[in-house]
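Standup notes
- DV: blocked on the single-chain target, sequence here:
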Amino acid sequence: MKSFNNVSMLALSALILSGCSSTLSENVKTAGLHASYSISSEGGSQATCDVTFTVGGGTGTSVELSGDDKVTCNGYAMTSWKEPVSNKTHYIVNVPAEPGANLTVTFTRKGERPYRATVVLPNSIILHSPQNGDVIKKGTNVVATWTPDTDKSSDIFGMLRYDLPNGNPEIFTQTSPAPDVGTMTFPTTDKGMDSTTAGSVRAEVYFLRSKIGDSSPGLKTSILATLSTTVNIQLVE
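- DV (later): unblocked, structure below
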């Protein structure tokens, strides 16, 4: 079964194949830039900061920093990486960050004040059920429970994924808007997965908390922080 990372890579590949032109930041005034900041964590002591710049909107021409233009995340310098084929430039760094930590991305250019965007990394997802290795009977619901977030501004997204007997993936998704209530129910009876289906099936249950941050004026910016967790279960007859 393909993992969620594989699913993400397939989506990324589709974006890559769509193509993307690029330009240097020294050719673009600040008013024309759009900065997109994505910060992700799996709940440990580290977060990954991924930054892209475009001109012409969030899906416009990719911008590569040049001249005196620089970007940092919590003071850490970022390394550039280009998507193959599309040539879109990302700036990436791993930084120490516990759940609930403040993270600040700073864009600087000569002769202008720094442009800062700040976001709080979501709190840990304390999952009570299911747990890794749990065995659940086919044709019954997968009931997920966790400690509700004390942060009332944090959304939570949930997904159950398994492969059908014909090899096709089946995905159920739910989003619990803030404040989350600490439970979701996923069916396993749709499209050929019921108590009569032979053999055991590995399934993944995935949760993602997200928070939107704030930015200083002068630079069009979006900043989002996410924290995720995944457990593996077995669906049996």
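- Follow-up: Residues 2-19 have pLDDT under 50 and may be disordered.
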